[in-house]
Each structure stands twice: as C-alpha cells, then as structure tokens.
Design brief:
Layout (H helix, E strand, L loop, with lengths): L19 E4 L9 H9 L5 E5 L2 E2 L1 H8 L3 E6 L1 E2 L8 H8 L4 E4 L2
Parallel strand pairs: 1-2, 2-4, 3-5, 4-6
Length: about 100
C-alpha cells in the first residue's frame, strides 16, 4: 500500500483557491489546528468548507482569516460559550454563504 501522508510543510502544494475542504473534529477538541494553520498560511482564498457534524474552532480560524467563501454545517459553536465569533460576524455581515444542514 502506498503511503499517502504528507508533512505539514507540504500542505501549501495542494491548497488552491476555491477548493472544497472538509474539516472534522469537534467544536473545541480534536481539531487539526496545525493543518488548518498551514491551509491558512498557504494563502488560498474563496475556500468552501464542509464541517463534519458540529464545527467550531477549526472552521472559525480560516473564516476569520478571510479565506472562506462558503461553509456547510449543522452548527458552528464553541460549546457553552456560544457561536464561534468569526463565523457569527461574517455570517451576520453577509460575507459568508451559509448552507445549514441541521
């Protein structure tokens, strides 16, 4: 079987503008923060995010970096702390296409 893993510093070779990116994990735990940071550092814009069930911190970071055009989700929250702040700000301002799949 071929190993399909890549190093974090190779992520930028694969990230493109407008790319569909699935982000798993939970609202605050099990978030692949290092990977998400590399996606942001790659400089891609107009990303289309898909949350695995409930999203939070992992989706809020690229939204706040102005890299996201749309997001599909059931909810994007910081658990008992309420809505993820960047998500809420961008959604309320109409700067983010929101596809709610609750």
């Amino acid at each position: 079987m071929t190993d399909k893993r890549i190093a974090l510093d190779e992520v930028s070779r694969y990230v493109r503008n407008g790319m569909l990116v699935g982000i798993g994990g939970g609202p605050l735990l099990s978030t692949l923060t290092a990977l998400i940071r590399e996606i942001i550092r790659a400089g891609a814009r107009e990303l289309r995010l898909v949350a695995s069930a409930t999203g939070g911190f992992g989706l809020d970071l690229p939204i706040g970096s102005d890299a996201v055009a749309s997001v599909e989700f059931a909810q994007i929250v910081f658990n008992e702390y309420g809505f993820a702040p960047n998500f809420r700000r961008y959604a309320e301002a109409g700067r983010l296409v929101c596809l709610d799949h609750t």
